[in-house]
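User: Protein folding is very new to me. Would you mind checking the protein record under this note? It all follows right here:
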Amino acid sequence: MRRLIAILAARLPLHFRVLYRQFLLRVIDLESLSIEADIPRFLGQFAGILLFFSIGRGVLILMFPPPPAAALSIQQSQFSLMMLIAGLITVITWDSIFPDRRDVMILAPLPVRPHIVLFAKLAASAGIIGLAIVCFNCLSSLSLSIVFAGLAGSPRYFLAWWFTMAACSAFLYCAVLAVQGLAALLLPRRAFLRLSSILQLAAFALFLSAYFLSPTLPSLTDFAASANHTLVSRMPSYWFVALFNQLAGRLPSQLVWLATRAWIALGMVAAGAGFSLLLCYTHTMKKIVEEPDLVPGAAGFHWIPRFGSSLAGAVALFSLRSITRSRQHRLALAFYWSIIFALALAWLRNALKTPPEPVNIDFLMWTFLMMCFAVLGLRGVFSLPISLHANWMLRVTQLRPTTKYLAATRLCLLLFGVAPIWIITAAFSFHFTPWQPAARHLAFMALAGWALVELGLIRFYKVPFTCSYLPGKTNIQVIFWGSLIVLFILGMTLANYEIGALTNLRQYFTLMTFAAGAAAGLFAYNRTQARTAVLYFEELPPEIITKLGLIYVPPAKPSSTNASSN
């Protein structure tokens, strides 16, 4: 098999093979995400996470086979989750399909046609989705085929499953590419850069909302019901469930129109993506060289809000504009906010089904986890530089003590990290009755957010977005499993304690005293350490003395017997 793949790859044009390898190394911003900027190790970590879920789900299905009535529900959940994974990967690799300034300046003088560049970039970004499809379905697809189709029908079930998984992922991938290509083709380059950031964040919200808010239909009879006709006709995940059952030979005749809709939609988005991107590459590549790395500011009236002192206002405004105008920072922050949005939607989906009720543990845990991801995610984004060529300006204008800069960074974390989550929590609190426990939880959330901010400011003696960094220090698997285990355990522990404290004033006073003491203690520690600290703008690697292992061995002296014989 490997030899066949090598033979087929050798038949591809040399330009395509070279560009594919180069674009694959840059399809994701490895400087901020991977280990030592090594794409194989990053992809191995990414595949390992998906393989863990696939193997675990496959083993559970074989050990505890679900009833046949649950087959359709499992299909809906798996296809919806696969579309969510493919959609998030497409959004994370949002601008990787378009050449950047370096690509154009290097490739334009060379005899490389634009369509070769386009196909190489498409293959590189689609390869990540292909890896996700294989890892996510490697064992679970086999287990589901054996359980629901038996040994006789499992081959057809298995092939239909893999084809539909690839089809639904390709549909979402091509749909996003079609929207990007049409926007780049119809709009001026500067307007496209502005709209692209909005579309990227909107795609995050749309994919997560569609996954968490779409209901599950338990049977094909519910698919055919007239009451659900509008729902199934508008949700692509239901189209591909019907397509799978058609390929597996299990689709009733009254639902053939739904599978036909999947075929038509897949063909339309594939044709639209190919047509728009081909035209875009032939018309916009020359404009890319003339555009700056950051989205330029718009002309006209600008209202600048005041954030305390002049220094605090300057740092807060610089941070806000860096987040909104820089693709790298916007994408990194959107990753954390996608988790927050997913947690909010997961709770909201259950809350919409129930009338007003007392505060429960799920609400306490989800809101605390949202606060953790908001503050720690923003603190991580602060460490990424925005423009190393402009750091000299901030160096020569350092006229205030380090404590003032630390206070300005604290204000940014409170405004852009703690305040939005607190407002979301306050909005969710209207669902609960009585209102007193929800109000007490809001007071605790304010102190917890302050404590998390102070925890993130430990030894952070720099201005946000201005310090160079050593790339490749992040381990994706450690962060993922660490966050999944540590934060969830911490959230469950606090939620179990707080649910009792909300109705017991003495226990609530103890909880608030502990939270306030932790926040005040961390605040005092950071302020004391900042008085003697110096702002730094360069993160230097540790000095390591390398030994070559060269040891001088003097020649051996002649022995006395040899000397006497001579």
